[in-house]
Design the sequence.
């Protein structure tokens, strides 16, 4: 199955298991930048942690020449995130994980650097995983450009309606999902291995992906 140059969006409330799932997705890649605003990716997950703009930028540039790296990038300001994003854009054949995507965009505003990444990143052989709690809190372009959408349980009608506008009525079951279970939609050939394994396990337990 072809999963190169794929954009994936993962949605789930705090404690739903989305970070664990994304960490599992990242294990299929040799070169990973995690924009880690919540401090979720550390040494226990195999990441080298970098703090602040200067240190993060230095390690990103150094790692760009390596065949293998897993960097957790932690900065406080949106401006610093966007500066690091410009560096990541220049590093092909890598995975970018953007945790808490809603910190960097809104339903009505998408920074130019983030828009460029979404529109042209696949031409740079970049894979991207956008992670957010609620789908309605991020810009629609990110969801529209996603090859795969993975969601844990969503209760709010606004979020269900948002997903339905992209996926259709199949998403109705998202409000009834058991804890830690997911639904996945999109290009079946690009669904990450970790998600496929999760869906198969759910099916064995009697929870269909709808």
Sequence:
């Amino acid at each position: 199955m072809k999963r190169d140059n794929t954009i994936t969006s993962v949605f789930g409330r705090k404690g739903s298991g989305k970070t664990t799932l994304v960490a599992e997705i990242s294990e299929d890649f040799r070169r990973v930048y995690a924009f880690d605003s919540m401090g979720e990716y550390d040494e226990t997950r195999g990441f080298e942690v970098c703090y602040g703009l200067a240190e993060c930028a230095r390690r990103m540039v150094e790692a760009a020449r390596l065949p293998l790296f897993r960097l957790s990038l932690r900065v406080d300001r949106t401006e610093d995130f966007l500066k690091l994003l410009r560096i990541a854009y220049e590093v092909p054949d890598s995975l970018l994980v953007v945790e808490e995507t809603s910190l960097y965009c809104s339903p009505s505003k998408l920074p130019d650097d983030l828009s460029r990444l979404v529109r042209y990143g696949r031409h740079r052989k970049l894979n991207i995983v956008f992670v957010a709690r609620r789908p309605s809190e991020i810009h629609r372009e990110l969801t529209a450009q996603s090859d795969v959408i993975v969601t844990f349980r969503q209760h709010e009608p606004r979020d269900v309606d948002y997903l339905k506008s992209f996926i259709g009525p199949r998403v109705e079951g998202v409000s009834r999902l058991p804890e830690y279970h997911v639904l996945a939609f999109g290009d079946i050939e690009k669904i990450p291995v970790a998600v496929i394994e999760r869906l198969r396990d759910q099916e064995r337990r009697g929870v269909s992906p709808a």
